[in-house]
Design a protein that fits this description.
Blueprint: H1 3-6, H2 11-17, H3 21-35, E1 53-55, E2 62-64, H4 65-68, H5 72-75, E3 78-80, H6 84-89, E4 96-97, H7 102-106, H8 108-119, H9 121-126, H10 140-143, H11 152-156, E5 182-185, E6 191-194, H12 220-244, H13 248-288, H14 295-298, H15 303-307, E7 309-311, E8 318-320, H16 324-336, E9 342-343, E10 359-360, E11 365-367, E12 392-395, E13 399-404, H17 418-454, H18 457-462, H19 476-482
Antiparallel strand pairs: 1-2, 3-4, 5-6, 7-8, 9-11, 10-11, 12-13
GO cellular component, one term: Set1C/COMPASS complex
Domain PHD-type: 39-89
Keywords: DNA-binding, Metal-binding, Nucleus, Transcription, Transcription regulation, Zinc, Zinc-finger
């Protein structure tokens, strides 16, 4: 925006913009109000403007109806009013009154007959009611007797299978001269022009056809041509204005993208650490294979262990305390296998997949349980007699000592299924970070789409603050804040 656009317009420019007489009166009244705080009106030169007032169409001065002897009812019949001062300067000026429209007298008897017919049922039965005609009787549409059967009004008719909601006659049978201007000449040689909904010329560039009823254009193509020409005319200045003024939303989106990239990098780093934990677990199991069994770490069964019993929380049967963990694990796996968790899409994750992804041909979906915990499609490996437990020993619950449990894997109750639970814990953590990474990708896609749409044609056309008050023009900071 240049400095000339920001400068205050002069009174001549304001008057040129508001060429309509009503707006001229308002602008000049506003200018007088700005120049003189206490505006005086009428021949009485008072500031009272609460009572009925009428303005002179020549000098545009306002007068009280009481002071000049004009009531509000009389003003309704006045078409042009001139004050005594203007009529004294120009004798050709005189107060003009609204003439009575002749078409009201012409159809007064008809409307009165219709009203009397509506009130009196005897007249309604006798058929004396007269309906107003909407046909001229001269054009070709008035002489057509058959419907086309192709327009929207014909398709609405019952005889063409329509619901009969619009209740309009065929478009080809609608009178073409009904909406034209009609001129009636009075005996006093005064011509009264009555304007109805007259067809106007199409607004399309270079088009000379008449516009459609209720529209500014003769066809949709003319409207599209005019809109294209206006876009081509206004778009270069909008692009220049866009490039000259900074966009706060663009800066906010850039900062949001930087934050999303940092979170994505953090999520990928965590996923790499979890993969490293998988490798460390595999190396730990490989190390345990070369160890020998220590019978002292396995423990011995005492009489208390054999006598004590408890009830399974799944099936409710009474079981021995020493074999309770194994029994409860089998019962839980049995009932868990009766429930299905599936999806029609196969998992596509970089690296080793953590899901079962077993295809069920009957239900036609992939199993979505964790592979290490799926009791339906994953069988537990057989444990040999010479296999060592291999779980790392700890002190104070969390501090690892570096030593491994050398008890037989079949008889070790303290570390039952430790390998499966450790892998499941790592896989659950990986799943959380994959879901967070998927949300970040979706946010990035949404932001990038909004950034690409912001520079579109619609965004450029709307990127402007229109100054509707020429008396108090907006400054550059106000325009940038509103954008």
């Amino acid at each position: 925006m240049t400095d000339s656009d920001l400068s205050a317009p002069s009174q001549e420019e304001i008057a040129h913009r508001f060429n309509i007489p009503e707006r001229k009166v308002k602008v000049q009244t506003l200018m007088k109000t700005l120049n003189d705080e206490e505006q005086k009106y009428c021949i009485c030169q008072s500031t009272d403007c609460t009572s009925f007032m009428i303005a002179c169409d020549k000098c545009e001065e306002w007068y009280h109806g009481v002071c000049i002897g004009v009531t509000q009812l009389d003003a309704k019949s006045i078409k042009h009013y001139y004050c005594d001062a203007c009529r004294g300067k120009d004798p050709s000026l005189s107060i003009k009154y609204k003439t009575k429209k002749p078409w009201k007298d012409k159809f007064k008897s008809d409307s009165s007959d219709v009203d009397r017919t509506a009130r009196d049922p005897r007249l309604r039965e006798s058929g004396k009611a007269k309906k107003s005609s909407r046909r001229c009787g001269d054009c070709t549409a008035c002489h057509k007797k058959e419907d086309c059967g192709r327009c929207d009004y014909c398709k609405d008719m019952k005889k063409f299978g329509g619901p009969n909601k619009m209740r309009q006659k065929c478009r080809l049978r609608q009178c073409a001269n009904f909406y034209k201007k009609k001129k009636y000449k009075q005996e006093s040689s005064d011509t009264v022009e009555i304007e109805d909904d007259t067809p106007t010329q199409c607004y399309g560039p270079g088009c000379i056809e008449c516009a459609r009823p209720g529209s500014k254009y003769c066809s949709d193509d003319c409207g599209l041509k005019l809109s294209k020409s206006r876009i081509y005319e206004m778009l270069p200045s909008r692009i220049q204005q866009w490039q000259s003024s900074p966009c706060a939303a663009e800066e906010n989106n850039k900062r949001a993208l930087e934050s999303i990239r940092r979170k994505q990098l953090e999520a990928k780093t965590r996923l790499g650490d979890l993969d490293q934990r998988h490798k460390e677990l595999d190396s730990l199991l490989e190390r345990a294979k070369h160890l020998k069994i220590d019978p002292d770490q396995g423990g011995t069964e005492t009489e208390d262990d054999l006598e004590l019993s408890l009830y399974c929380v799944t099936c409710g049967s009474e079981i021995n305390q020493r074999g309770a963990l194994r029994h409860m694990e089998k019962c839980f796996a049995k009932f868990e296998s009766q429930t299905s968790f599936g999806s029609i899409y196969k998992t596509r994750i970089e690296g080793n997949s953590m899901f079962c992804d077993f295809w069920n041909p009957q239900q036609k979906f992939y199993c979505k349980r964790l592979k290490v915990l799926c009791p339906e499609h994953t069988k537990e490996p057989k444990i040999g007699q010479d296999e060592v437990c291999g779980c790392s020993l700890v002190t104070n619950v969390f501090d690892e000592t570096g030593e491994l449990c050398r008890a037989p894997k079949r008889k070790c109750v303290k570390h039952f299924c430790w390998e499966k639970l450790r892998r499941a814990e790592i896989d659950m953590e990986r799943l959380r970070w994959w879901m967070a990474l998927d949300d970040l990708f979706e946010k990035e896609r949404t932001i990038r789409m909004s950034m690409s749409n912001r520079m579109g044609v619609l965004g450029l056309m709307l990127h402007q603050s229109v100054d509707h008050d020429p008396m108090t023009p907006m400054t550059t900071p106000q325009i940038r804040d509103s954008n």
